[in-house]
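Narrative summary of target 7.
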Amino acid sequence: MEENKKKAYLTINYQAFLDIKNSSEFSKENFNQVFRIAHVFHNLALFIIEDFEGFDEDEFWSKVRGLERDFGLTHYKILFEKAYRDELIR
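Modeled conformation, tokenized:
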């Protein structure tokens, strides 16, 4: 996998953990969303450590589309694309 794509995956993995951290208290209202974010991204962290060996991008993005559909969380794909094109402001 090319380095800029790896960096883009690192970026959205970090964002997912920020989203979980910043979800305030775990209430009934946000529990399902926070749980689903953690479920989608926890394996990505392992694949990052293992240099993406065995990583199935189609399966990962299918799960992200579920977050988009169920919770309107479109920012992961947008952030990934910007990071991939190295368009993020630092």
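Helices lie at 3-21, 28-49, 57-71, 75-84.
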